[in-house]
Every structure is written in C-alpha cells, then in structure tokens.
Design brief:
Layout lengths: L1 H42 L1 H5 L6 H42 L5 H24 L1 H22 L8 H42 L1
Helix pairs in contact: 1-3, 1-5, 3-5, 3-6, 5-6
Length: 200
C-alpha cells in the first residue's frame, strides 16, 4: 500500500507541475504579446520588426518549445505511473486482500481509450502540450516571416535574430518528433507492461 501511495503522490505532483508549466507559459505569451502590441501601436511596425525588440519573437518560440517538451515529459511519466498501478500494483493488492480492488484504474483506462477513439481531434485541441506546440509554431513562423520580409530584422541584433529563428525552427522539429514518440509510447505501454509481468 505504501508503494501505491507513493505512485499516487507522484502522479499528483506531476499533474501539479503540468499546471504550473502551462500557467507560466500563458503568462509569458500574454506578457510578450501585450508588450509587442503596445510597442507597435506607439512606434509603428517598422520599428518593431527592425528593432532589437523583435528578438522577443524567436526567443518566445524557444521558451514555448521548452515548456512543450517539459509538458510531454510529465504526460509520459503520468501515463507510466498509471500503467504500473493498473497492471502491476492492482493485481498484487488484490492477491493480498483476497478480492478485486482499485477498479477505478481499470474503469478510467477504458473510459479514456473509448473517449480517445471517438473524440481524438477535439481532445487534441484541449491538450496543453499540443497548445504549447501550436503557440511555439506561431511564434517561430512569425520569426521566419520577419526574417524574409524585413530587410534588417531586429536591426543591430540581426545575427542573433537569424540564429534564434533557426534554433526556434529546430526546436519545433524536435518537439514534433517528441510528440510523435509520445503517441507511440502510449500505444505500446500496455504491451511493455504485459512483457514485464510475464518476466516477473
């Protein structure tokens, strides 16, 4: 039971970190967007895109990609903890007490699988990791458009802007690849658990 309690606490801790991660990212996006809108309103678009302040755009994309990768890490760990509780701890506890226990783990797993099959697209839109990826992609795209459209993007910070934009696009590629790997992980976690149970 102590191990079950530890796993449950670990899941709650990861969920709390997910919410904090998303809250910080939203504050970042809101603050940067607000600042850039006010800056453009008072000084004009040329001053915004051809001034060093434009560096905020690719840097924001980089930060959002980092938040996205952290979010994926939390989601994978939560899924692993849940699979362990459902497939390893639950049968052990049932054996000890002589009756089936922790039916909620089985119930919630079935509900989630059914819901995912029926509402995959809608659920994706509500997924915080996906939202962070989209926001990062928007910022990286705006950086790329700025790089192509304006003759001197970020003024004296042009080299840093070009480097940051390239790095932001690289982080997007890594984020998309990592998201794909996470989806594959979700699909194979039950097979991994079954193999582990057979070996032990």
């Amino acid at each position: 039971m102590e191990e079950l309690k530890a796993r449950t606490e670990a899941i709650r801790h990861r969920q709390d970190l997910e919410h904090r991660n998303m809250n910080v990212a939203l504050v970042l996006v809101t603050s940067v967007t607000g600042y850039l809108v006010v800056y453009a309103s008072s000084k004009g678009l040329p001053r915004l895109f051809e001034g060093e302040v434009a560096l905020l755009i690719p840097v924001t994309s980089l930060l959002l990609s980092t938040f996205h990768l952290r979010q994926l890490d939390h989601e994978v760990n939560i899924a692993d903890y849940g699979a362990y509780v459902r497939s390893v701890l639950r049968p052990r506890i049932a054996q000890l007490v002589g009756r089936d226990v922790l039916q909620y783990e089985i119930f919630i797993d079935e509900v989630r699988r059914s819901r995912t099959r029926r509402l995959a697209g809608v659920l994706l839109l509500g997924n915080e990791a996906f939202q962070l990826l989209v926001l990062s992609l928007v910022a990286a795209t705006l950086s790329l458009i700025t790089e192509i459209t304006w003759s001197k993007p970020a003024g004296d910070g042009g080299t840093a802007f070009t480097f940051s934009t390239g790095l932001a696009l690289l982080f997007i590629v890594v984020s998309v690849w990592q998201t794909r790997e996470m989806v594959r992980h979700y699909r194979t976690v039950d097979r991994v658990v079954e193999s582990w149970r057979e070996a032990h």
